[in-house]
């Protein structure tokens, strides 16, 4: 009897987990776009610094642009809901 109860509990837990993941999809994509913009544009600014020897201005400009783009995408995704 205990094995049947365990399966029922496991099935319920898995179903609840799937529902939570599907509900949090938009929030996860918004946070990934914010972090992605910071990493990519900051990395491009750093690479520009290394290439043109302009440290720290390229990295600063890249991170600043990453914040702007990331928060724009965050606001855009939150208004879609």
Can you put this structure into words, describing what you see?
- The protein has 81 residues and is mainly alpha-helical.
- Helix content is 91%, strand content 0%.
- Helix 2 (25-52) packs antiparallel against helix 3.
- It is elongated and about 60 Å long.
Features:
mainly alpha; elongated; 81 residues; 91% helix
In short:
91% of the residues lie in helices and 0% in strands. It is an all-alpha fold and 81 residues long.
Q: Helical content, roughly?
A: over 70%
Which structural class should the secondary elements be placed in?
mainly alpha
Rg value = 21 Å
Order of helices and strands: HHH
Shape: elongated
Proportion of β residues? under 5%
How many separate helices? 3
Q: Total number of β-strand segments?
A: 0
Largest sheet: none
- Please report the distance between the alpha carbons of the first and last residues: 44 Å
Low-confidence segments, given as residue ranges, are none
What average pLDDT do the residues reach? 85
What is the strand and helix layout of this fold?
Elements lengths: L1 H22 L1 H28 L4 H24 L1
């Amino acid at each position: 009897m205990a094995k049947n109860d365990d399966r029922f509990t496991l099935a319920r837990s898995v179903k609840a987990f799937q529902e939570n993941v599907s509900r949090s999809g938009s929030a996860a994509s918004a946070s990934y776009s914010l972090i992605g913009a910071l990493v990519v544009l900051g990395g491009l600014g750093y690479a520009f610094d290394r290439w043109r020897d302009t440290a720290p201005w390229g990295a600063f400009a890249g991170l600043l642009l990453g914040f702007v783009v990331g928060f724009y995408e965050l606001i855009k995704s939150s208004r879609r809901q």
